[in-house]
Amino acid sequence: MGCDRRLWLPHCQCGLSLYHTVRMGRQNKKDDRVKMMKTGKNYYAVVKGVKPGLYTSWSGENGAQAQVFGFLGAQFKGFAELEDALDYLHAHGIVVAEHKDHQPRVRYQDDGIHIFIDGGAIRNPGPGGYGVVLMHQGRRKELSQGFKKTTNNRMELSACIAALSSLNKKMPITIYCDSRYIVDNITQGHAHRWRINNWLTSSKKPVENVDLWRQLLTLVDEFQPQFTWVKGHSGSAENERCDQLAKAAARSDHLIVDDGYEQTPATLFE
Question: Which residue among 208, 243, 258, 260 is the active-site one?
Fold first, then answer.
């Protein structure tokens, strides 16, 4: 009669053989994976597998399952939020290429001022407005203003100027803005080079919205804010609030004249 090797395996304190313990462990892992697929996991971070990295599906040849199934010592985890998956990978020394859905999470410093801005013009150019939300240690302040005729870019710039002009104390400042026009020109140094080159671009053309850029760079020199780009309409409550303020201001009955736009040829701003 053949010998059943399971009878010779040591038993754990609960009375189950090591064979059954291992079987249960494997089953639990399988159950966990099934559960992960049913609990709203949108991203899968594979730390140890055939190809470590970030995956947006569990099944399929390009999914996370194919990377960990049968892989000895596989390590992975599912997440509902992309930022959490990226943090998990980064903590294990794995850096992945920027994902199209990646929206950096706002992490507040308790001692700093956080400024959210937005602006726009109806029909661009047309009636416009800006909205600002300032936050500091639990306190909140909102600013907005509408203009009779202006442009999207001028309203974004005006929002930055209004926000920084309202401050009376220097401390760490972060400005969150969905305008690449502002964030890229500031962080990549283009705006500072325009000023050095007497407000001419690298192609020797006059800088658009020069009146507002002059004001903004003066304030940037004074307060040294950090500019952070945020994706518009991506779920940020403060960004959405700024959008509401700007639209309401543009449609209000208290519109003022945007002197810089009215006095300068419109072709400079289109």
Answer: 243
